[in-house]
Amino acid sequence: MSLSLTKGNNLSLTKAAPGLKRLLVGLGWDARSTVGDDFDLDASALLVGYNEKVRSDADFIFYNQPSDAAKSVTYNGDNRTGEGDGDDETVSVELDLVPTDVERVVFTASIYDADARNQTFGQVRKAYIRVVDADTNTEVARYDLNEDFSTETSLVFAEVYRFDGEWKFKAVGQGFSDGLGGIARNFGVVGLS
């Protein structure tokens, strides 16, 4: 049974789903009806070390760099409309392959070309992130974003992190008003900031 988290809460994935090795992290959203059809969100992930930064730009996983060198985190493709039921974009994580000097995998979403289109997360509804056991297709945890992000153009949705020999999932819900570049700068990505 899946546990629904609120902002700031965490869950031990190790205890909630013993034997969990492969995650499918799904992100979903809908644009408000007043926005129109030209609304594209992009999921991404960052492999973050114990210094709160990526080890290099190669740890930024997104549509132009769909996997890290260890193949521990893989971006599974772009949904340009967000239409339909279920996850709009997904990221796969092989927990056993995550390098030992990576403390967290941070999951984000940003609005493509937000400034030019005058779009923010305030125009998004039903946004969520969920963790699924990829081997059993069972949802383990979910975070529905209920906050109003009226000026933000990118968000850190959640993270999966190591703690005392366990893997945990944390609902973050932190917004940035300067797009994906703001997230990149925050985590030390040089090539995008």
Could you explain how this protein is built, in words?
The protein has 193 residues and is mainly beta. It has one domain (3-186): Sandwich (Lipoxygenase-1). Helices cover 8% and strands 44% of the residues. It contains three helices and twelve strands, in the order E-E-H-E-E-E-E-E-E-H-E-E-E-E-H. It has helices spanning 13-16, 114-117, 179-186; strands at 3-5, 10-12, 22-31, 41-49, 60-61, 73-75, 89-94, 102-111, 124-133, 138-144, 154-163, 166-176. The strands form two sheets. The protein has a six-stranded mixed sheet, with no helix packed on it. A hairpin with a 4-residue loop joins strand 9 and strand 10 (138-144). The longest helix is centred in the C-terminal third of the chain and has 8 residues, at 179-186. The radius of gyration is 16 Å and the shape is globular. The termini are far apart.
Q: What characteristic shape results from the CA principal axes?
A: globular
In the CATH classification, which architecture applies?
Answer: Sandwich
What's the arrangement of strands in the largest beta sheet? 1-10-9-3-7-6
Indicate the proportion of strand residues: 35-45%
Average pLDDT reading = 90
Order of helices and strands: EEHEEEEEEHEEEEH
Features:
6-stranded antiparallel sheet, 44% strand, 193 residues, Lipoxygenase-1, mainly beta, 6-stranded mixed sheet, 12 strands, 3 helices
Sum this structure up briefly.
Helix content is 8%, strand content 44%. It is mainly beta and 193 residues long.
